[in-house]
Structures are given as C-alpha cells and as structure tokens.
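#onboarding

Welcome to the new folks! Below is a worked example of what a typical request in this channel looks like: someone posts a single protein sequence, and someone else replies with the predicted structure as tokens. Don't worry about understanding the tokens yet, we'll cover that in week two.

Example request:
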Amino acid sequence: MDHLSSELSKLKIDRSQRGDEPSSRRRLFAAIMAVAIAGGGILAVFALRNSTAAPEVETVRPRVESASSAAVLVATGYVVAHHKIQVGSKIAGRVAWIGVEKGDRVKQGQTVVRLEDREYRAQLDQNKAALNSAEARLNELERGSRPEEIERAKHDVERAEAQLRSEEANLKRIEGLVKEGVFPPQSLDDAKGRTDSARANLASLGRTFELIRQGPRKEQIENARAEVERERAAVNYAQTILDATEIQVPVGGTILERNVEQGEMVTTSFVGDRGAKSFVVTLADLNDLQVELDINQNDFNRIGSNQPCTMTTDAYPDRPYRCHVAEIAPEANRQKATVQVKVKVLMPDEYVRPEMNARVTFMSSDEAQKEEEVKLYIVPKRGVIERDGGNRVVVAVDGKAQTKPVTVAREVGANVYISAGLTGNESIIVSEPEKLKVGDRVESKK
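Example response:
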C-alpha cells in the first residue's frame, strides 16, 4: 500500500509551478509570430519589387568613324553621281514598250523604250519612192538618147532635106513658067513660101537631131543629180526619225528613275507632270560618285585641290572610303557664306548610293606628317552625362543600368565624338540617363 501511495503521489500536479507555464507559452508564441511577420515583410518587399515593371529606355549603339591624327576638318554633305543623265526622246510619240526597271544595270547603246512608229515608217516609204523616181530620171539623162531615137531623128532630117530639094526644084520650074506667062505671079509666091517652110523644117529637125545625138545638157544632169541628193537626204532624215522611236542609253550605268509607262506620251520639251514627259529614264554610273559639301568660308582655308580625305555614310558608319578633293567651286555662296566642294570617292561599292548622308574628314596634305588612324565613336549628345567629376555614358547590361567613363574628343551638332571608353558594342541609354542609378533595372524599347 505504502508503495502504491508513493507512486500515486508522483502523479499529482505540482501547483506551485503551474502559474509560470502559460507565460512561457505566450513568449514562445510571440517570438514565432514576430519571426513570421518579419519573414512576411521581407517576402512582401521582394514581391513588390518583382511586381514593379522595369522602365523602358531608348538605347542606341555607337557609330564608328575612322579618323586620322592628320584630320584638319570634318564636314557633312550628300553623295551625288558625278554625271547624272536624263535620257530624253528626239521625237514625240506614244510609248509602245519599256524594258527597264529602277535599279537595272544597262549597257551603252541598249534600247530601253520604244515608241509607236507606224506614221514614221510610212513617211520613210514615201521618201524612198521619191528617191527611186529621181534616180531613174538621172539614169535616163546620164545614159543619153537611145540609138533608135538618134536613127529616127536622122531619118527625119533626111526626109526634110528631100522635101526641101523637091520644093526648090518646083520653085525653079514655076519661076520659068511665070516668066513665060503660063502661071500667074501668085504661083511663084506660093512656091517660095513652101520652099522657105521646108528649109525651116529642115533646120529645126537638124537641131533636134544634133541635140538627140549629143544627149542631155550638163545642166540638166546636174539638176537631176541634185534632185536625187535631196530625196536621199529626205530618206536619211526619215530613217533617223524612225530610228529615234527606239530610245537608247548613251552610256552604261544604273537606272535611277523610270519616268514613263506604256501608253504615255513623250515629247521633246518639258510640259509639266500632267502632260507629256520629256525624259524617259534617268541613269548614272554608280562607280563614279562624289560627295557634295558646303564648306563654311571660315574653314575654306583648310581645303586644297586634290587634298586627301576619308568618307563614311550615316547608313554604314563602319565602312570608310578613301577620297580626294576633285572640284572647288570658283564662286562662293553669299547667302550661305559657304563654298561648294566636291570630293571624289575613289573605290565606291554597292553600300554607297546617291543622295546618302555622308561625313567627310579632310586630312592634312603634308606628306611628311605621319597619319595615325584612330577610331571615334559617335553617340547622341543626350547620351553623355557628367557624373563623379567626368563624362560618362549609361549602358544597359543584362537588364541593369551601368555607367562607363568616356573621353569626349569633340561635339558636332547633336552628336558627341568619343575617343576612349567604348568598344562599339554597347547599348547606350539616351532617354534621361541622368535619372538612372547603377543597378537600376531597365528594359530596352523594341
């Protein structure tokens, strides 16, 4: 019993320690709640940060331009064809066929347009017929009279001579009879008249025989020969007009503009866009290109004839081309205070096209000066900021904003030329970069 009583006493609750147990449980619960709240706050911050979309920014890649330490001037202009040809028509007519499109390459003498030619072909046939007639007439005169004609004229003369001899014999007989009083005097007069008529007829036929025997006069032959030449010239002119219905290009090159369509009228003079066209195509040799520049008069003293230079286009800034000054205008532009200069692109390719924007770097013509090629990176001026005492650009790297220190060589208009600090592959932020901090999440506009 005693053992059972002792065991039962162990199972009794100690009332002295009961009052401290609820307080410990409350403290433990409070601690757990505090940790849960702190963890929830952290998760909420991360969730809020992740839920906020990164701002969209405008980015550009720097353009590369090769420059020289010997550069004395940089100017901008436009690529132009050295010889731009507008091919027109010699005659008016309607387009029956056109065989080129814009951008096609053509060879010298290639037919590009044909006009309707029925009227001009008929005129040529008429002139050829007139030429044949004139030539036949000339041949007739040059060959002279035929033997049959000469023989007939000779017989006419002989017959006239016989007639004259008969009339003269009859006249003598009548004279004797009149003297004898057999015939009246009137018979003698009639006989004299017939004799004179026979003599005149013989003289006329004699002259005709002589002309037939000698043939046409020299003047007649020359006149007939001139008529032949006139008709031949008319044929040549008609042939030239007919040939002009096939419009050919005078030189080889590339078609820049196709100015007419089938069925449109072509004329020899310009009458406006709504009327007949005066030019059918425009072409140029794209291997003979120049850059046209307007140089400020204050900088004109830096330019000289045949001065070497380099050229890049805005479309392909990483493709420099060698060139030299080919033409300097003899007269300045008073209104613009500029002088027009043209530089020849020495080795153009398919990447250089007329009317492209171009940038020309003029170099010193002093051959003793060593030219050290450097690269300049062109970025918009609004993409360069001042921070930490220097020039910097803000770039987007893996969706975050970073800054890079750069060295500015010069400013030209709205662009900045950077000589150090860039590689050319950066995505430079140009939309309010000064408001971004290092590490800010950004997203480039598409």
